[in-house]
């Protein structure tokens, strides 16, 4: 049984190959419109590269649903809660597990949320932890998304990153069961989630 070919992640190039060509967000959209990529395709655009998305395990699904439902209970009017839907950045179109964007579902009838729309993005991590802590943290921070959570289902903890004064994210704050997880949108503290409620 032969091993599957390696997945090439952003900023990585297989040994012996010339530099890879990045595609733009516009080219990515045209590929979708032309049917080259379809809605069931498990890829996302990260830093100009098509990257295979990880499969969703039951603990991952549990945590995703827990976060979505708990945020829905305290989400104020004027913010749209989205699950595994695209956001559009300068050279990327990731699909965070949960995002919270200004507006209503009608706001995004003809476009995806961009950095100025977003108050919070959440990635649920198991096998994807290295990508979520690395490439995605860099992309979200560079885009100016105010708050980024990584819900780490393996270690049952949440890493909370917020924008630093000089741009990008500072070191994350790691929260574990028994601690509150502050929900901040648009600079307003709406309440806390219990970290223990997010994990199996």
How would you describe this protein?
There is one protein chain. Helices cover 20% and strands 27% of the residues. The protein is an alpha+beta fold. It has one domain: tt1808, chain A (Alpha-Beta Complex), CATH 3.90.1570.10. Strands 3-4-5-6-7-8 form a six-stranded mixed β-sheet, with helices on both faces. Strands 1-2 form a two-stranded antiparallel sheet. The longest helix has 17 residues, at 58-74. The protein starts with 24 loop residues before the first helix and ends in a 6-residue tail after the last strand. Residues 1-11 have low confidence and may be disordered.
Defining key terms:
six-stranded mixed β-sheet; alpha+beta; two-stranded antiparallel sheet; globular; disordered N terminus; 20% helix; 3 helices; 200 residues; tt1808, chain A
Number of strands: 10
Strand content: 25-35%
Q: Give the overall form.
A: globular
Radius of gyration equals 17 Å
Give the neighbour order of strands across the main sheet.
3-4-5-6-7-8
Q: What is the CATH architecture descriptor? A: Alpha-Beta Complex
- CATH homologous superfamily (4th level) name: tt1808, chain A
Overall pLDDT: 91
Largest sheet: 6 strands, mixed
Kindly, what is the distance between the CA atoms of the first and last residues, rounded to a whole number of angstroms? 34 Å
SS content category: alpha+beta
What name does the CATH topology carry?
tt1808, chain A
The total number of structural domains is: 1
* Low-confidence runs: 1-11
Strand and helix order = HEEHEEEHEEEEE
Number of helices: 3
Q: Kindly state the percentage of residues in helix.
A: 10-25%
CATH class: Alpha Beta
């Amino acid at each position: 049984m032969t091993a599957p070919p390696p997945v090439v992640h952003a900023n990585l190039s297989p040994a012996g190959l010339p530099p890879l060509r990045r595609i733009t967000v516009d080219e990515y959209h045209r590929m979708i419109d032309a049917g080259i990529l379809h809605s069931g395709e498990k890829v996302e655009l990260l830093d100009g590269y098509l990257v295979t998305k990880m499969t969703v395990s039951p603990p991952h699904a549990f945590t995703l649903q827990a976060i979505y439902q708990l945020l829905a209970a305290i989400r104020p009017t004027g913010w749209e809660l989205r699950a595994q839907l695209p956001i559009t950045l300068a050279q990327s179109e990731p699909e965070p597990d949960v995002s919270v964007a200004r507006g209503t579902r009608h706001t995004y009838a003809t476009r995806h949320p961009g950095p100025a729309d977003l108050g919070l993005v959440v990635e649920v991590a198991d096998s994807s932890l290295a990508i979520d802590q690395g490439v995605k943290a860099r992309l979200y921070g560079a885009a100016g998304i105010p708050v980024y959570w990584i819900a780490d289902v393996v270690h049952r903890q949440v890493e909370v990153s917020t924008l630093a004064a000089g741009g990008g994210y500072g070191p994350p704050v790691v929260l574990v069961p028994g601690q509150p997880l502050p929900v901040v949108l648009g600079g307003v503290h709406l309440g806390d989630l219990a970290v223990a409620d997010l994990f199996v």
